[in-house]
From TrEMBL:
NAD as UniProt keyword: no
Keywords per UniProt: Membrane, Transmembrane, Transmembrane helix, Transport
Protein name as annotated: ABC transporter permease
Superkingdom as given in the UniProt entry: Bacteria
Species assigned in the record: Isoptericola luteus
Main location: membrane
Family that this chain belongs to: Belongs to the binding-protein-dependent transport system permease family.
Pfam families named in the record: BPD_transp_1
CDD domains: TM_PBP2
Membrane-crossing segments per the record: 7-25, 104-129, 150-172, 192-213, 255-276, 296-322
InterPro entries per UniProt: MetI-like, MetI-like_sf
């Protein structure tokens, strides 16, 4: 119990620090939301004092309060689920923008991460079990693909499969000419899968090499343990030794890394979403930073922080059950 209480206390302090940094860092940047939105409105003509006062109220009248009063209001709004109003897409609430972008990122990056992990762990286990076979020969090529720049792989895929062969679309999350918006139909689901194939392939190719190499090395190390020799001496079938004794224990470090990767799924893939103009959290965050949209920046960073901390905490809990040594020596 002490182990879990220590972990809860650690993540509570980390969450407070992350939220505090999320509040203060954007305010160290030049400019402010009120000035930005007023400059945009003034291009269309003069603004009446009533409109100006309304905008001040909608943005929380931050310029009339001290930084600590704004900090207290920020925490109060968080507990109410209010993340503010976006400046770039005024007057849309930040929660609505994040709610629209989050399913796209979870569906694409989450699925691609799971596929990459399963492929890497499976092939890595086989490569470590059958050293010198054709599976072991995949490691140099996958490692080379992982070392290539992420955006370069995406651009090559677009040039070959979208521009030259015209097998896949260049940008977007679905066919905007065939559908007015997201809808629950098989035709729309097919369009989403069709548009997501190249971005997902980019993620899988760029990340599977790390899982494969890590699992292969852990399998080689695990196979030299005494309990593997004992299992083989007892006459157990090779398949059982492979699955129950070798692969199961070798996958433990990769499982921890997978939990962290799932936490970062919410952050999306900034480069991939920008290259493919995919409507996810990554593209939304880039838009917020470019336009000094404090509320949208804080909202996206907060969601990413919560997801990563939740994934790390979940992995600590799981490890506490799987490996009792972490509860006593962690």
């Amino acid at each position: 119990m002490k182990f879990y209480l220590r972990r809860i206390g650690f993540y509570a302090v980390t969450l407070w620090a992350a939220i505090s940094l999320n509040f203060f860092i954007p305010r160290l940047l030049p400019g402010d939301p009120f000035t930005i939105i007023m400059a945009k409105l003034q291009r269309a003509g003069d603004i009446s004092p009533q409109v100006e006062n309304t905008i001040r109220l909608m943005l929380g009248a931050a310029e009339d309060k001290s930084i600590w009063e704004q900090y207290a209001d920020y925490w109060a709004n968080l507990f109410q689920g209010n993340l503010g109003v976006s400046v770039t897409q005024f007057p849309t609430p930040v929660t609505e923008l994040i709610g629209d972008a989050l399913p796209w990122t979870l569906g694409l990056v989450g699925t691609a991460t799971v596929i990459s992990f399963v492929l890497g762990i499976g092939l890595g286990a086989l490569a470590g079990w059958k050293r010198g076979s054709w599976v072991d020969g995949l490691i140099p090529s996958t490692t080379m693909l992982q070392s290539l720049p992420y955006f370069w792989v995406a651009l090559i895929f677009i040039f070959v499969f979208s521009v030259t062969l015209r097998w896949f679309p260049i940008i977007g999350g679905y066919d905007v000419f065939g559908f007015n918006g997201p809808e629950w139909t098989w035709a729309f689901v097919g369009s989403v899968i069709y548009h997501a194939f190249l971005p997902a392939l980019t993620i899988v190719i760029s990340s599977v090499g790390g899982w494969l190499l890590g699992m292969r090395n852990m399998m080689v190390s695990t196979l030299s343990e005494d309990y593997i020799t004992t299992a083989e001496a007892k006459g157990l079938r090779p398949r059982r030794v492979f699955t129950t004794y070798a692969a199961r224990n070798a996958a433990m470090p990769s499982l921890a890394g997978f939990g962290v990767s799932l936490g970062f799924v919410v952050a999306g893939s900034l480069v991939m979403e920008q290259v493919f103009t995919y409507p996810g959290i990554g593209k939304l965050m880039i838009t917020a930073v470019r336009n000094n949209d404090y509320a949208l920046m804080q909202g996206t960073f907060l969601v990413i922080t919560l997801a990563v901390l939740a994934a790390l905490f979940l992995m600590d809990v799981i490890y506490g059950f799987i490996d009792p040594r972490t509860r006593h020596h962690g």
